[in-house]
Amino acid sequence: MLRIVNRVFLGLVGLILLVLGGSVLAVGLGAPVPSWWIHDSKHDVLLSDAERTRWSDEGWWWPVVIAALAVLLLLALWWLVAVLRRRRLAEVLVDTGDGDGALLRGRALEDVLTQEAAHVDGVDAAHARLRGRRSTPEAHVRLALEPHVDPGTALTDFTTGALAHAKTSAGLGSLPAEVRLRGVKHGAERVN
């Protein structure tokens, strides 16, 4: 979801800046402009003195300007943090018992967890992702269940099987997991 919001936001900002910059360049080069456009000629300024100082003597003007800029700054910082934050865990630190540690690729553990979860009875499809820190990973798993399966049984089979194997094989003390279950749609059965 964040990726879609990011792309749409960047696309809109880029399009607006491209249109405004292109219009300023076109007017500066002497292109004809419509009567409603914000620039009239290449000697026109973006904001005249009258437009700039129009509300500066009002008591509400500067608090509103500062509040709007603060909101824009907070939104920009939130977006920057969201873009820079890694969504996937690149590696997991495995305790080898000799004081040193080994690094296990996060994708490898995700793939094994996904494949083993897909083999649980009643699971039609599975997808696993690791998040968190490399010393304390967290599993985020989505399981698509077949129509006939009991969700509690499938969840128990997954936690005692695939999740326990992943925790043991990576030498982790604990592997917290968030498991999302959904049912697979099925067609109507024919009754005679």
Shape: elongated
Mean pLDDT: 84
Question: Strand order across the biggest sheet?
Answer: 3-4-5
Fraction of residues in helix: 40-55%
- Helix count equals 5
Structural class: alpha+beta
Number of strands: 5
Strand/helix succession: HHHEEHEEHE
Task: Tell me what the structure shows.
Helix content is 45%, strand content 19%. It has five helices and five strands, in the order H-H-H-E-E-H-E-E-H-E. The strands form two sheets. A three-stranded mixed sheet has the order 3-4-5. Strands 1-2 form a two-stranded antiparallel sheet. A hairpin with a 5-residue loop joins strand 1 and strand 2. Helix 4 packs antiparallel against helix 5. It is elongated.
Keywords for this entry:
about 20% strand, 5 strands, two-stranded antiparallel ribbon, three-stranded mixed sheet, 5 helices, alpha+beta, about 190 residues, single chain
Summarize the model shown.
By secondary structure, the protein is of the alpha+beta class. The protein is built from 5 helices and 5 strands.
Helix and strand layout, with pairings?
Elements: H1 2-28, H2 49-52, H3 61-84, E1 91-95, E2 101-105, H4 106-118, E3 123-132, E4 137-145, H5 151-169, E5 177-183
Helix pairs in contact: 4-5
